[in-house]
Specification:
Helix 1 packs parallel to helix 3. Strand 1, helix 1 and strand 2 form a beta-alpha-beta unit. The chain has 216 residues and is an alpha+beta fold. It folds into 2 domains: 73 residues, 3-Layer(aba) Sandwich (Glutaredoxin); 129 residues, Glutathione S-transferase Yfyf (Class Pi), Chain A, domain 2. A 4-stranded mixed sheet has the order 2-1-3-4, with helices on one face. Helix content is 57%, strand content 8%.
Length: 216
């Protein structure tokens, strides 16, 4: 069987999403851990020309972009299925992943999580409160939209685990460890959903490094 190798910076929520997907599929893999600045090295840019993480290798097949990677994993290793067969549930899953990729991560989580957790833990930086204050007002819109989409379902796209849950859970696990994230999620159905997700073996097997968890 071809070896699966995932290149990424430990603690990246996108790396964790890919690893959790592989854990759900019970597929063996190897992580090539990278230092934060290594994503811009010539060697890594040969794998991912945009210098982001993760990058993925399955034998001689190379792939980047988290959505593409997890969809590939789900197609190649079909059980258990992580994409709904119902068109409406599949569309809902895609919508939720889009909320993460276009709004939650770039506009909110990237800023707040870096300032509250990553910067202090890995770089010894003090939080930039002005940057946090600029990002925080956008948080209730994203959390509110996700909570409404979750509704009374067990998972984000319905009653079965999907790629939406595995991509969103690593992001919200970090956000829930910040004062801003806790305040936004308090009293919403997302809090109970996140507790259930974090308790899954796939999430427990892919916890961030101790340094990040201690600051959080």
């Amino acid at each position: 069987m071809s070896e699966i190798v995932i290149h990424g910076v430990p603690g990246s929520p996108f790396l964790r999403a890919v690893l959790a997907t592989l854990e759900e599929k019970r597929q063996p893999y190897r992580v090539r851990a990278m230092a934060p600045g290594e994503a811009k090295s010539p060697e890594y840019l040969a794998l991912h020309p945009f210098g982001r993480v993760p990058a993925f290798e399955h034998g001689d097949f190379r792939l980047y972009e988290t959505q593409a990677i997890v969809r590939y994993i789900d197609a190649v290793f079909p059980a258990p299925a992580l994409q709904p067969s119902d068109p409406r549930a599949a569309a809902r899953m895609n919508q939720i992943i889009g909320i993460n990729d276009w709004y939650l991560f770039p506009e909110i989580a990237r800023v707040i999580v870096f300032q509250r957790i990553v910067g202090p833990a890995l770089l010894g930086l003090e939080p930039n409160e002005a940057a946090i204050a600029a990002a925080a007002p956008k948080l209730p819109t994203c959390i509110g939209a996700l909570a409404r989409l979750l509704g009374d379902h067990a998972f984000l796209a319905g009653d079965q685990l999907s790629l939406a849950d595995l991509i969103l859970a690593p992001q919200l696990d970090y956000l829930a460890a910040t004062p801003e994230g806790r305040a936004a999620m308090r009293g919403t159905a997302l809090s109970a959903w996140l507790e259930r997700m974090v308790a899954r073996p796939s999430m427990q097997a892919t916890l961030p490094p101790d340094k990040l968890r201690q600051v959080a």
